[in-house]
Amino acid sequence: MRGFIQILSLLLFSALFVFATYKLPDWLFADLYLRLDPLLSLNAIFAAREIIPRALWALLTVGATLLIGRFFCGYVCPMGVSIDLLDFFFFRKKRRENPLRLESTLRRMKYLLLIFFLSAAVVGLSLAFLFDPIAFLTRFYTFFIYPVAVTLINLFLDLLRPLFRQLGWVSISHLHFSQPVFYMTAITLLLFGGIIFLNRWVPRFWCRYLCPLGAFLSLFSPLGLLKRRVNEECNQCMRCRKACPMGAIGEDPRKTNRPECVQCGTCSEVCPKEAVSFSPSFSIGGEYSKLDLSRRGFFFSFSGGLIAGFLALQTPFRLRRGKLQLIRPPGAIPEDEFLRTCIRCGECMKSCLTNTLQPSLWESGLSGLWTPKMDLRLAPCDQNCNVCGKVCPTQAIRSLSLEEKNHAKVGTAIIRKELCLVWAQNKICLICDEICPYNAIVFRPLEGYRRPVVIASKCNGCGYCEQRCPVKGESAIVVVPDGEIRLKEGSYQEEARRLRLEFKPDPGDDKFILEQEGLKIEEDRIGKGKTLFKEKLKSQKPKGFL
Fold first, then answer.
1. DSSP string, 401-433
2. What is the tens place of the pLDDT at every residue in 221-252?
3. At 425, phi and psi to the nearest 5?
4. Cα separation of 273 and 82, whole Å?
5. Which residue, among 370, 354, 378, 348, has the nearest Cα to 184 in the 3D structure?
6. Dihedral angle sign, alpha carbons of residues 446, 450, 454, 457
7. Contacts of 140 (CB under 8 A, 6+ apart)
8. Distance between CA atoms of residues 43 and 113, nearest Å
9. For 334-447, where are the alpha helices, taking DSSP H only?
10. 454 forms bridges with which residues in the sheet?
11. Which is deepest, 19, 171, 267, 320, by most CB within 10 Å?
12. pTM, 2 dp
């Protein structure tokens, strides 16, 4: 039964991950597992210093742990399921010492990490994402599983494409999925591989010694009603102790370390006398339930988190933010609050329709590690997609309607004249003008030449111009965060109106501006459905005009 529930939980986690696309309906919570994670929720609330409504979903997990025990780690956690599955495939035939010689010392690690992360969050530094299992597995799915899956699907389609043509399945024969690419994929794979490799020595090494979420839940699990019981039939064969994946059974097999027990039932399955059972009990604690954590360890971990949080938010890390032009997703709240609230799960990056969202490394300092940024040279922000806000479990990216999202100006395009083909080489290039969905780029006669210029009040920083610029290497037109609008609350449309911004296509802008500059536009019909625009100066035709 436990194995069935575990597989079902992993399939649900994977299905929600797949459904996190631009077609995600409002009623489907693709970030359900992230919302139910109490460590991420508590970290976000402490760092943001306010109650986050979506984070309150984690109370369901805490309440269930208080009622039942630490079942989440044994049955629901997708990281635990992944570790168990891969352990079965790679290490089931390996002889492993159980427990390790440093068992008591290693047990303290997850509690020290928990204290460190929460104390850092108190001063505004979010670090729980580094070791939180749900956030980590979501990043692994995003940066590795998702791209590999798309590659394999495309290879499969290419292989069967001739058969589809023979069968007359035209739509499938032309089907091809856009290949996502993410930075730091190799790092993510190495970290996940390291977690699995640790099972070489002890089953569920991560869950036993390193997982801060497990440490948090273990604080409440002794209060749960469901507890392990051993009757008088026990002959102390020690099979239960050897089989326990969490090492929750001591030298006396009749005693249980209740904070470590995940109610998996493995001990009762291997018991030859059927002396082990799990039944409701109102007793609190147990002979083997004391938390082994010294005052010195608590002090060093707590003070270490405070110091790390203080240093990360000061110079030189803080100064680095202003040196680099980071473009955040539309709807991202103001930067300081964004860095405190974002849990770096990678859900927004996976769901991004165009793959423009990428993880940050050191661009915004230590406090901005793994946060999403827009790489507009790689891909633009699609104007018909607003899913990144829908899947954000802490609303570091606000969930906005399409109209609101398109008014969430992320920056302004600027032309780098030394790289622009028109400005620097007097060549004819119309790409940025033609691709701009808001007609924010127009051509004007300047000093006798026809030059592209950006109308800042019409540009919302979508990045189509930067991505399509034909210049090799760095684009000749780039989006910078100047003029960005980032609101924690309130309407982006109202703010845009207040700033006199207009983000609507207007085919007449070029004609209006050219006529203001002394140009006359005539339309001639040539062929079927084709229109040729002839631009003439009243006095003299500027250089560079067709």
1. -HHHHHTS---EEEE-TTT-HHHHH-----HHH
2. 888 888 888 888 898 898 998 888 888 888 88
3. -125, 5
4. 31
5. 370
6. positive
7. 188, 189, 192
8. 13
9. 335-341, 347-351, 387-390, 402-406, 421-425, 431-435
10. 441
11. 267
12. 0.86
Class of domain 411-517: alpha beta
- φ, ψ for residue 355 (rounded to 5)? 75, 20
Residues 426-471 have pLDDT tens digits of 898 999 999 999 999 999 888 778 899 999 999 999 999 999 999 9
CA distance 337 to 2: 41
The domain locations on the chain are: 321-405, 411-517
- Rounded alpha-carbon distances, angstroms, from residue 337 to 333, 345, 368, 492, 541: 7, 16, 11, 18, 53
> Where does residue 467 fall: left (phi above 0), alpha (psi -120 to 50 degrees), or beta otherwise?
alpha
**Chain CA centroid to CA 184, Å:** 13
Cβ–Cβ under 8 Å, residues 184 and 149: no
Hey, what are 360's tokens? 């940050």
Mean pLDDT check: name the lowest of 124-138, 312-326, 526-540. Answer: 526-540
Copy the structure tokens of residue 473: 């290497």
**Same fold across 321-405 and 411-517:** yes
Phi, psi of 343, rounded to the nearest 5 degrees: -100, 5
Residues 6+ apart with CB under 8 A from 440: 413, 454, 455, 456, 458, 459, 460
CA dist., res. 137 & res. 131, Å (int): 10
* CATH number for the segment(s) 321-405: 3.30.70
